[in-house]
Amino acid sequence: MVREVLQKASGVRWGTHLLRWRYFDVTHEDIIYHKGALISTGLWHLLKRIYVDQDWPVGTSLEKLNEDTRLTIQHPDTQIYVYGYYRTDPPRPQWGFLNPETGIAVIYDMEADLIATVFKPEEGEAFFLRQIEAVKIDRKEWEV
Q: Which whole-number Å values give the CA distances from 15 to 12, 37, 99, in the listed order?
C-alpha cells in the first residue's frame, strides 16, 4: 500500500479546477495575476509559496516546484504520515511527506489522486503529528 501511494504521489498531479487568487496582484514570469483572478491549482500554490509565504524564491517555476515535490516524496529520508483531513466529514485519509533536511512538506490526497499542497511548515513534524489520528510510517519496517 505505501509503495503504491509513493508511486502515485510521485506523479505530481494537481487538481484541474481553478482557484481564485485572493491575495494581491503579482507578476510572475512576465504575467500579471490580479487579485480575484481564477488560476490553475498548481499555479495558485506556486504563487502562494513564492509571494505570500516566501518559501521558494522569486523566479521559481511550476516545473521546479513539481520537481521539488517529486524529490521530497521519493527521498529515502522523507518522513511519511497518514492522517484524517479535518475539513471533510468524515475525515478523509491524506498522506503527508516531510523532508527534514529541506523542510519541504507535501500533502497527497489518495482518494482524489492529487497533490493537495506543497509547503514548508514552520513547525516541521509537529504539523503532521497534530492532525487527526496521525500515524507515522516506519520506512524501515515497511521497507519503503
A: 10, 17, 23
Q: Is 55 helix (H, G, I), strand (E, B) or coil?
A: coil
Say if residue 119 is exposed, middle or buried (CB neighbours under 10 Å; 0-12, 13-18, 19+).
middle
* pLDDT value for 132: 84
- pLDDT tens for 128-144 read 999 888 999 988 776 75
**What are all long-range contacts of 61-69, with beta carbons under 8 Å and residues at least 24 apart?**
61/29, 65/118, 66/12, 66/42, 68/102, 68/104, 68/118, 69/12, 69/104, 69/106, 69/115, 69/118
As given in the structure block, the three cell numbers for residue 125 are 513534524
Segment holding 136, helix H or strand E: strand 132-137
CB within 8 A of 103, min separation 6: which ones? 120, 121, 124
pTM: 0.92
